[in-house]
Specification:
Blueprint (H helix, E strand, L loop, with lengths): L15 E18 L5 E21 L4 E3 L12 H13 L4 E7 L10 H16 L6 H11 L3 H6 L3 E4 L4 E4 L6 E6 L6 H6 L25 H7 L1 H10 L5 E3 L6 E5 L2 H8 L7 E8 L4 H4 L1
Helix pairs in contact: 1-2, 1-3, 2-3, 6-7
């Protein structure tokens, strides 16, 4: 590990810890496609009390160092580093940072791990570097990094439209979820471009939403294309309402209480990765800031 600044004893040069939680899409409708290829969607983003952790330590130079690289991902391509450098450039700060990531969320799982990491980085460094940007400005920066970043910046369960940037806070239930992780990773780009993806679901007004009657427009295609997902969903539906989140591959099942969720988790086939988490109305980082 890089040991720069370890001799400093002031709070300024200690690690500061922040949450980077998962999201699920309670439903996801594709309502159209723009001329630039981006898709119009409607969805409800809900946070879970489970995710990654990020630790930030102010440096006495302008370097941005990610001390915990992710296998197969170049540091400069990591959204954490991109977010830090974007904030650095936009604010013209000369401050730097060391960053540690405790990774729990799978890549390509539809849980928004990378987007959550980017949002936490923007929010945390806005405080640590004292750049004093508004939440609106940080959300605008986040959108340049990914369509899901703004909802993590704003930190509230929301109804999203557009490409995900038009957000309206919404009250939904906060049940317990069993999130099951099939042994596959789904790249967002190719699945969005697939010719069999439905792109004409009728738009809903926010007061027309009945989550149970909605669906994930990616689910049929993903189940057809990825046998691991098909097998997982078919198994889980024997026990509880279950649905793909995002573009997949993770599947969430809904339970009234933690005990019931854990009971089904214990029945999962040997070797299946999963976790149990409670739905949240807002991200814990709002309190941590």
């Amino acid at each position: 590990m890089n040991t720069n600044n370890l001799t400093h004893t002031t709070d300024e040069y200690k690690f500061h810890n922040f949450s980077s939680v998962a999201k699920i899409n309670r439903f996801l409708h594709i309502t159209g496609r723009r001329s630039n290829g981006y898709h119009e969607l409607q969805t409800v983003f809900q946070f879970l009390d489970f995710g990654d952790d990020l630790r930030f330590r102010l440096r006495n130079d302008s370097n941005v160092n990610l001390l915990t690289p992710i296998d197969g991902v170049d540091n400069d391509s990591n959204l954490i580093v991109k977010a830090a450098k974007m904030l650095q450039q936009q604010s013209n700060t000369s401050k730097g940072v060391d960053i540690e990531l405790v990774k729990r969320l799978p890549m390509g799982g539809g849980l928004g791990g990378g987007s959550s990491n980017a949002a936490t980085t923007l929010l945390a460094l806005n405080k640590i570097w004292n750049t004093q940007f508004s939440i609106d400005r940080l959300a605008e920066m986040g959108l340049a990094l990914g369509a899901d970043v703004p909802v993590f910046v704003r930190g509230k369960t929301s109804f999203a439209e557009g490409v995900g940037e038009f957000l309206t806070p919404i009250a939904v239930d906060n049940p317990w979820f069993l999130v099951t992780i099939p042994n596959c990773s789904i790249a967002t780009g190719p699945i969005f471009q697939h010719p069999e993806l439905p792109r004409n679901t009728a738009k809903l007004a926010i007061n027309e939403i009945n989550i149970e009657q909605c669906r994930n427009d990616f689910e049929k295609l993903v189940r057809k294309t990825y046998p691991e997902v098909e097998k997982t969903i078919a198994w889980l539906l024997e026990y509880a309402p279950s649905r793909l989140t995002g573009t997949g591959a993770c599947v969430f099942s809904i339970f009234a209480n933690k005990a019931d969720a854990e009971k089904v988790q214990n029945l999962l086939p040997t070797g299946t990765k999963s976790f149990v988490a409670r739905g949240l109305s807002q991200s814990p980082i709002l309190n941590e800031l």
